[in-house]
Every structure is written in structure tokens, then in C-alpha cells.
Design brief:
103 residues; mainly alpha; extended
């Protein structure tokens, strides 16, 4: 793993690809007022992390945390009922198995 610097963020090519993708997303999102890009960066980060990546075939949040991140709209329009008959130990074991499968 190589450390990057502010003016030369190229390490192994992966950082360069991510930076290019983020710049393209910012250009599209902040087209009308490009000076306010920093106020919209959290939207870009969320959309990037919720996109399925071609190299891993999973979402960034799913690869890192083991589950798909829900958007605020998921909580507004969907009611979740947590009656599944599983105790916390079973849920923890399932979570660990999912993490191993993703990695």
C-alpha cells in the first residue's frame, strides 16, 4: 500500500479512477453552480458508495459493512417489522457469514 500526497494522489491506479469518477459526478451534479461543489459532496459520496462496482460486483457499503446502506427514502416509504424468530446470536452468526462471503 502506497501513501499518496495532495498534489499527486496516484498510488496504484485505484485512487486515480475513484478521483476521476468523483470529478465526473461533481461536474454533472454541480453544473449550474460549480462554486458550491463542496456543499454537495456528501450527496456524491453517498451515490458513489451505493453504486455496484464492476470489479467486486457488490456495493461499497456492502463490502465494508456487510449490508446495503438504506437511503432516507427507504425509511419513509417502507415499514420494517422485526418479527423473524431469530435471536441475537443467530443474527450475529449470519452477519459474520455474510461478511466472509462478501470478502
Amino acid at each position: 500500500m502506497k501513501m499518496s500526497t495532495t498534489f499527486h494522489p496516484q498510488t496504484d491506479g485505484q485512487t486515480k479512477v475513484v478521483n476521476i469518477t468523483i470529478v465526473h459526478l461533481l461536474h454533472g451534479y454541480c453544473d449550474k453552480d460549480p462554486k458550491l461543489w463542496d456543499q454537495h459532496l456528501h450527496y456524491i459520496q453517498h451515490s458513489y458508495n451505493c453504486a455496484k462496482h464492476s470489479s467486486t460486483q457488490v456495493y461499497s457499503f456492502e463490502a465494508c459493512l456487510g449490508y446495503f446502506l438504506k437511503s432516507p427514502l427507504d425509511f419513509i416509504f417502507v415499514k420494517y417489522i422485526a418479527i423473524d424468530g431469530h435471536n441475537d446470536v443467530d443474527k450475529a452468526k449470519n452477519f459474520i457469514e455474510q461478511i466472509h462471503l462478501v470478502h
